[in-house]
Design brief:
This protein is α+β, with helices and mostly antiparallel strands and about 210 residues long. The chain folds into 2 domains: about 50-145; about 150-205, Head domain of nucleotide exchange factor GrpE (Nucleotide Exchange Factor Grpe, Chain A, domain 2). The chain contains 4 helices and 8 strands, in the order αββαααββββββ. The chain has helices at about 5-10, 45-115, 115-120, 125-145; strands spanning about 35, 40-45, 145-150, 160-170, 180-185, 185-190, 190-195, 195-205. The model is unreliable at about 25-35 (pLDDT under 50).
């Protein structure tokens, strides 16, 4: 809006327009300058790059800490597993040692009961008590994985059996067959701790 002063209105002059400053167009875009934490000047582009680098470094450190934590956890689990296995082996070995010492007791029971003539002469109530103790002992040892080996009628196995005698047989089918178990053997946890003592048939062609 152009405003005329009194003098211009009286003289009929055209109103004068207010002077304006010339406008110059920017020839190139100016970058915003910021300062970093130490007060050094830098552009927004520099600051953005620095932040990205710091974020990348943080992510790498985070991944490293996570990897180290997972490795430490795995080492702990493996160590605990080895300790448990070692403890189980210790208990197993102790059990095997004790059970192996009880096997001769079973042999004594078997020898006593194998002598039918002497066994029948013993008081019946006493025999009943002995059989009860024997069955309890056998059951307890069986629960601890002790199993008897009595290969009567089976082929002689030198890796399993101990041949104490060979007897002549007239039937060729009885050749190398266990004809008598003199003393039972035993396995503990699938391992032979005492080989059975056996008599083996031997066929000789005429």
């Amino acid at each position: 809006m152009i405003v005329m002063n009194n003098e211009e209105q009286q003289n009929g002059k055209q109103p004068t327009e207010p002077a304006t400053e010339p406008v110059t167009e920017a020839t190139e875009t100016e970058e915003i300058v910021q300062t970093d934490e130490e007060g050094n000047p830098g552009t927004m582009k520099d600051t953005s790059k620095k932040l990205r680098d710091e974020l990348k470094q943080c992510q790498e450190e985070k991944q490293k800490y996570l990897t180290d934590l997972q490795r430490a956890k795995a080492d702990f689990v493996n160590m605990r597993k080895r300790d448990e296995e070692r403890m189980a082996e210790t208990v197993k070995f102790a059990n095997e040692s004790l059970i192996a010492k009880l096997v001769p007791v079973l042999d004594s029971f078997d020898m006593a009961m194998a002598n039918k003539e002497a066994w029948e002469k013993v008081d019946k109530d006493w025999r009943t008590g002995v059989m009860y103790i024997y069955s309890q002992l056998v059951g307890a040892l069986k629960n601890n994985n002790l199993e008897p080996i009595s290969p009567l009628g089976e082929a002689f196995d030198p890796m399993r059996d101990e041949a104490v005698e060979f007897e002549k047989v007239t039937d060729e089918k009885q050749h190398n067959i266990v004809t008598k178990v003199i003393q039972k053997g035993y396995t503990l946890n699938g391992k032979i701790i005492k080989a059975p003592k056996v008599k083996v048939g031997e066929f000789a062609k005429q």
